[in-house]
Design a protein that fits this description.
This protein is α+β, with helices and mostly antiparallel strands. It has helices at 49-64, 73-92, 142-149, 154-158, 196-199, 204-213, 217-229; strands spanning 2-4, 8-15, 25-32, 35-44, 102-103, 105-111, 114-120, 124-129, 132-135, 179-184, 188-194, 236-243. The longest helix is centred in the middle third of the chain and has 20 residues, at 73-92.
Length: 245
């Protein structure tokens, strides 16, 4: 699916993959005259609760976008993510079926010359600049903590049996800590958000190769296909935001 505004073209895909019965990922975007918002979430919880949590997260962010304006973008973005957290936490207390549900969230807002990114969990945001890819977000996961402590290497982390355990999520407690990043958009050609259904099985270099090899929606389609080929057992969602050439 392609969406376009004055400066950026956005392509997205969200599929359940080959092993899950339902798709607990949820993606969305919104555009205004001088800004673009991308958001991706990966839900967790039994009895379809993950599907509900991720949808609440994305829809809450999108409904708040009109209030996110300079010069306090970071502050307003944190407020929006915390609001989503509160909505999910409240919903989880209404039924035993929803108890303990949660979701990751990764948000990117492009305003004028800057890109603002918020992250909770292990969904990721990458940017491509000068034909090189950089991972902007840092996973809130058990494996990342083990890598940071030196207990395991990054290569060992890719095949660690606990790589799906996250240490921070929306909806699992009344409050949540939100990571915020601000980067200059100069020379950035692509922004890519994805859930761990892709990032757990593809290297940064493999993702970059696909970004460089295909146009628009074909990037999302080929990341999905490649993730399946590499054995992904999860839902797979990708948003690509590409600057006008």
């Amino acid at each position: 699916m392609k969406i376009q505004n004055k400066h950026w073209k956005v392509y997205k895909i969200s599929e359940k993959g080959n092993f899950r019965e339902i798709n607990e990922d949820y993606v969305g975007c919104a555009f205004h005259e001088d800004s673009s918002l991308l958001v991706i979430a990966d839900g967790m919880g039994g009895h379809n609760a993950g599907e509900i949590a991720s949808k609440i997260a994305v829809e809450t962010l999108l409904s708040y976008i009109n209030q996110i304006k300079e010069p306090n973008v970071e502050k307003e973005l944190i407020t929006a993510v915390k609001m989503a957290n509160e909505e999910i936490f409240k919903k989880s207390s209404e039924s035993l079926d929803y108890s303990g549900m949660g979701t990751t969230i990764t948000v990117s807002i492009i305003i004028n010359d800057f890109i603002y990114i918020a992250n909770v969990g292990d969904s990721r945001c990458y940017v491509v600049k000068n034909n090189e890819i950089s991972l902007i977000t840092k996973d809130h996961s058990l494996v990342q903590e083990l890598v940071d402590s030196g207990a395991i290497t990054e290569e060992e982390g890719k095949v660690h049996p606990s790589k799906n355990i996250i240490t921070r999520a929306l909806g699992t407690s009344k409050d949540v800590e939100v990571d915020i990043y601000k980067i200059d958009s100069c020379d950035i050609t692509d922004i890519l958000l994805c859930t761990d259904g892709a990032s757990n099985v593809l290297t940064n270099e493999e993702i970059l190769s696909i970004i460089k090899s295909y146009d628009g929606s074909e990037v999302c389609n080929n990341i999905f296909i490649k993730s399946l080929e590499m054995g992904s057992r999860d839902n797979i969602s990708v948003i690509l935001c590409r600057g006008d050439s």
